[in-house]
Design goal:
- By secondary structure, the protein is mainly β.
- Helices cover 3% and strands 37% of the residues.
- The protein contains one helix and 13 strands; from the N terminus they run E-E-E-E-E-E-E-E-E-E-E-E-E-H.
- It has one helix at 192-198; strands spanning 21-22, 24-25, 38-44, 57-65, 75-77, 88-92, 104-109, 117-126, 142-147, 150-155, 165-173, 179-182, 184-188.
- The strands form two sheets. Strands 1, 4, 5, 8, 11, 12 and 13 form a seven-stranded antiparallel β-sheet that branches. It has a six-stranded antiparallel β-sheet with strand order 2-10-9-3-7-6, with no helix packed on it.
- Strand 9 and strand 10 (150-155) form a beta hairpin.
Length: 201
């Protein structure tokens, strides 16, 4: 249990087959030569009904090194952590979904990441402190991924409605050193801690 009351604990199996699913895509991701440089991932959802426990969703980013691109994360960025070099930061963290528009936001400055890192996976998890809760239990969820004013992808989690967590984006460094964006969503049945450890496997 983290100091702010959010929890990261016990293992569950990945939800379903784990096959990637297409997200809705916006404008072209990049030109032939220019890769992704700086992106913002934003998340919104409606507050729980009056008197019910709060819905608390969190964005998580996991970074992976060239020698273990599908192994354990080199480090995680979420509500109570940040990247060592400041290149990935959670700018807004909501515990209730209250507010207008997108409630939670994470910025990833991929062009500033050390060459040590060749893969970054971004996911969304639902805190499970008040019993098991899945995306289908939360109204008006949406995640949006943008580079500047260009919308790369948006998703409402409908295809992973029975999941407690999901990966929503993958960024990989190509042979030229440029970052490429892959829009996929994969559902998991896992608590936040287990999801964070396994989201990139």
């Amino acid at each position: 249990m983290a100091a702010n009351g959010k929890s990261w604990g016990a293992a569950r199996r990945p939800h379903g087959s784990g096959r990637p699913r297409e997200m809705t895509k916006g404008s072209p991701v990049s030109t032939l030569n220019k890769g992704i440089e700086k992106v913002e991932v934003t998340l919104k959802w409606d507050p729980s009904p009056m008197g019910a426990p709060d819905h608390d969703l969190d964005i998580i980013a996991a970074t992976y090194t060239a020698d273990a691109p599908h192994g354990d994360p080199a480090y995680l960025v979420h509500f109570d952590s940040r990247s060592p070099d400041g290149t990935i930061a959670l700018n807004r963290d909501s515990r209730t979904g209250q507010g207008f528009g997108f409630d939670e936001a994470m910025t990833l400055e991929l062009d500033r990441l050390s060459d040590t890192y060749t893969r970054v996976v971004v996911g969304v998890t639902i805190q499970q402190g008040e019993g098991r809760k899945v995306f289908g239990d939360v109204e008006n969820t949406a995640v949006r991924i943008r580079e500047g004013y260009t919308e790369l992808a948006v998703n409402d989690f409908a295809e992973v409605a029975d999941s407690t967590a999901a990966t929503v984006a993958e960024f990989t460094r190509d042979d030229t050193g440029n970052w490429r964006f892959h829009a996929t969503v994969r559902g998991f049945d896992a608590d936040p801690d287990t999801f964070a450890r396994s989201m990139g496997h």
